[in-house]
Amino acid sequence: MDPNAYALYLENIGSYLMPVVIIVFFLLIGFIVEKIAIRLLKAFLGKTKWKGDNAVIKSVRGFGVSFFLCLGLYTVLMQLHLEQNVYDMLRALLMTLIIFLVTSAASKITVAIVRLYQGRYKGMLSSISIFTNIAKLCIFTMGFLIILQTLGISITPILTALGVGGLAVALALKDSLANLFAGLHIIASGQVRAGDYIKIGTDAEGHVMDINWRSTVLKSMANNEIIIPNSKVAEAVITNYSRPQNDISVSVAVPVAYDNDFAQVQKAALSVARGIASAHPAAVASAEPSAKYSAFNDASAVLNVSVRCKTFTEQFVLKDELLKELHRKFDEDKIRIAATAV
Hints:
Helix content: 55-70%
Largest sheet: 5 strands, antiparallel
Distance between the termini: 109 Å
Radius of gyration: 34 Å
Structural class: alpha+beta
Number of helices: 11
Strand content: 5-15%
């Protein structure tokens, strides 16, 4: 082979191989630096009492490798002999990518911290996504403005235009803004919390799963999602079955025939209610059950037997057990239930 041709061949190989070597080198450096940084971060945060160390470490994982990859690509770009306009375009793209990576990492850390502090409020703020959405929006907006400034696009006219057009935007998005501020109002009031079982108006009811920037999401007893705009929730009459306490009274009405001994019937019903209250997992054992007559009908007297239930959703299984045990006890004691409905 011609020595000149061979030398040219090696030069071509080197020109293609060198960028690959540089990128692999920076990836390796990024991997090592990330491992060391995470280890040092764990050691530092482990000495503190702050509980957000795992969330922060998880958020920054992978950032070091991606950042050094961008540095490797930038180094390769510096080695290439490109036209000035092509070089400027690729350099701007790399700078945009680096800023996006930093913004994304900052967003993940901020969201992790927000969720950590949300978890301190049992049921009130945990699993509510409106705060994390606002945090993401603010950080990515700042990152977008920094990218524009880096690309040489002045953000002053943009900010001025936003200020002038703010009224038009507010009018165009009035429904969305109304839902956003209604959601913030619902959360700030503390009257509806994640996990509460509520009834909105006369129709929708279920556990509050989330309150986001647009809607409140309920999970019904049938395991379906009910999505209601926040503005509708703020205006509606809400029955919160979880406040001021979770336990509720479960009552069954028993039509007792007039030829029974009312005192004996009351005693038998009360013994059944006490047995269920002390043994059933859905009942509140510390609450004293009751068995009281409430009305006279044409063919019967109405005996209301009540037991405290731990949660709203458990009332049905407790009522079922109460009815079965009352029927068994009345049949055992020869207590006659009136045939007519109450």
